[in-house]
Amino acid sequence: MSVFIIAEAGVNHNGSLELAKKLIDVASEAGADAVKFQTFKAETLVSKNAQKADYQKENLNDGNDSQFDMLKKLELDVETHNILIEYCNSKNIMFLSTPFDLDSIDLLDDLKLPIFKIPSGEITNLPYLRKIGALKKRVILSTGMADIGEIEDALDVLTQAGTPKKNITVLHANTMYPTPMEDVNLRAMVTIGKAFDVAYGYSDHTLGIEVPIAAVAMGATVIEKHFTLDKTMEGPDHKASLEPHELKAMVEAIRNIELALGSSIKKPSKSEKPNMEVARKSIVASEPIKKGEVLTEDKLAIKRPGNGISPMRWDEIVGSIAQKDYEVDELI
């Protein structure tokens, strides 16, 4: 099964339908499997006095610290969802969106979304988890800020509500934008998979593309990564997002790593079989030998090519009788 790559547009559309369509174009051209937005109503997501995160204050730097005011401008209404879904279909890429409240879960379910992505911030939201679990859809659960016990609790809620564990992929994540390398802790991703016997992946907020590529090499089956049209655009997440050429490079690298991981069986590959004759060695005559002579060590040598008797049979050949005349370097 190939790695499912989610190009996370998030709120990088800045509230513009045209920008959202351009982001879909970029994700499709890069070869991502899905492009993901965010579905919320500012009124039900945050209280009026909730403050922005420090990175949001820093990235926006507009003197307004209200999360509500920032998010209100980034809402996508039902009509916009329908337009974007239709546009994704035309570009042969899956439309996904993360619901941030109960009404948004209903909206996305009405739109027949095949996968529900649970963001890190909702992993301790019991009514939210229960509502998604009851849909019995495929679920991708992000675990930023969570410990192993909280992940266990969330999985219990989802499965008890009706979603089979085989439908759930758990993403290791860190919610800092950008994530410092020393805080990535990729090994925790594998711990999650082993602890719960569940499919696992990685939602990346580091700068660059090497960490998600490493995650694939460690068994990730889903990769999620923020992208933008331009890192210098105004908005909370642009700076920690990939630009189009970087997204394309990440997808290409992941596809190469998938191929390189192979089957786990160790044997000569198709491409290297012709090299066996060239690079391996055979037992040859080191001096002229007459038929009937005993093949002693001083009469033999080991040289390329490898299309004669293998040197692994050295002990068997030494002390045997020559069945014919040999010239120097002739294969025994």
Automatic annotation (TrEMBL):
InterPro entries, per the entry: AFP_Neu5c_C_sf, Aldolase_TIM, NeuB/NeuA, PseI-like, PseI/NeuA/B-like_N, SAF, SAF_AFP_Neu5Ac, SAF_PseI/NeuA/NeuB
PANTHER family: N-ACETYLNEURAMINATE SYNTHASE, SIALIC ACID SYNTHASE
Domain AFP-like: residue ranges: 282-332
The keyword Transferase is assigned to this record: yes
GO terms classed as biological process: carbohydrate biosynthetic process
Organism classification: Bacteria, Pseudomonadati, Campylobacterota, Epsilonproteobacteria, Campylobacterales
SUPFAM superfamilies tied to this protein: AFP III-like domain, Aldolase
Protein name: N-acetylneuraminate synthase
Provenance organism: Sulfurimonas sediminis
Gene3D superfamilies: Aldolase class I, Antifreeze-like/N-acetylneuraminic acid synthase C-terminal domain
Keywords: Transferase
EC number: 2.5.1.56
